[in-house]
Amino acid sequence: MEFQTVGIIGAGAWGTALAINIARGGKRVILWSYDGKHKCFDGVDVPENLTLVADPHDIENTDVWLDVVPASYFRETIKKFVGVYKNQPIIICTKGADSRTHEFMSEILKEELPNCVDFGVLSGPQFAAEVARGFPTGSTLAGTEHTLMAGRAILNLSQLDETDDIIGAQICGVGKNVIALVAGFLSVKTFGENERAMVFTQCCNEIINVGLTMGAKLRTFTGLCGLGDLFLSATSTTSRNFSGGVAIAKGEKLVGTVEGVFAFDTVLTRAENLGVKIPVLAGIKEDMGL
Fold first, then answer.
1. DSSP E strands, 113-216
2. Do 10 and 151 sit in the same domain of this protein?
3. What pTM value is reported for the model?
4. Into how many domains does the chain fold?
5. Which among 100, 102, 129, 280 has the fewest CB atoms less than 10 Å away?
6. Confidence of residue 257 (pLDDT cuts 50, 70, 90)
7. Whether residue 57 is found in the same domain as residue 140
8. What's the distance, CA 278 to chain centroid?
9. Strand 119-123 versus strand 90-92 pairing type
10. Which of the residues 95, 176, 189, 285 is marked catalytic?
11. Of the residues 164, 187, 218, which one is the last residue of a structural domain?
12. DSSP symbol at 279
């Protein structure tokens, strides 16, 4: 299969950036938006082979789907597409977990679309504006062989690492939000660089222990979706989570959605259910007042 047409669900910053990226590579892209609008990037033109739609039926006959809606809307959005799904491979491009059930997006997908057997997760160091502008970007795609084949054909990225570790890729996406939030907090609250490095490493190890207990592969944590995404999120003031951690440490009000706040509960709940001790993260969460 050549995967010539791509349906993208969600026209926020990340969905629009991926749509532009894929269209720029020559594929026909149908971008679904719940309100008929998409994100605009300064100085970036929308390719002519990218079409914006508001009806789920308009992506019914595309060759592969990308789901790029925020985690908090993932379940309700998938439900809108159940009646038009025709067994296309689905690439989940949403990082995070359900704030109420603490489920990962792949778990929700399997509940709401049980006939979907080919799916995967795209995750990595990805600031949407840079992807839209065509800057070098690498990602990890975790999924079934058919999904990996689809990703290979459509994604116009500098580097695409492939794995079957779907759970590991999602734990990395949740965990990096937590650690980036912690990194911002530590940049203000620690006594010095030595302590910050020590606590940062302890937190990383606790996330990895949770992941390994769930069946994730250690190699995933050192890849683009793990170490790569963590570096991006935990070292840049552009990161909402890092900036959010700084704000918490200074007693300031959080601005916008800070995923790490919700991800903290997911990590602690998952760890408790698995019987994995994460005392450092639990202590920092308490210090943050979350």
1. 119-123, 138-143, 159-163
2. yes
3. 0.95
4. 2
5. 100
6. confident
7. yes
8. 23
9. parallel
10. 176
11. 164
12. H
C-alpha 183/C-alpha 203 separation (Å) is 10
Q: How far apart are CA 175 and CA 263, in angstroms?
A: 7
* Segments forming the whole domain that contains residue 94: 5-164
CA distance 115 to 254: 40
To the query of whether residue 176 is one of the catalytic residues in this protein, the response is yes
pLDDT, one tens digit per residue, over 171-220 is 999 999 999 999 999 999 988 999 999 999 999 999 999 999 999 999 99
Do 118 and 188 belong to one domain?
no
pLDDT in tens, 29-72: 999 999 999 999 999 999 999 999 999 999 999 999 999 999 99
**Spatial distance between the Cα atoms of 238 and 73, rounded to a whole number of angstroms:** 24
Tell me the three state secondary structure of residue 28: strand
Both 179 and 120 in one domain: the answer is no
Residue ending a domain, among 164, 190, 206, is 164
DSSP string covering 45-113: PPPTTEEEE--GGGGTT-SEEEE---GGGHHHHHHHHGGG--S--EEE---SB-TTT--BHHHHHHHH-
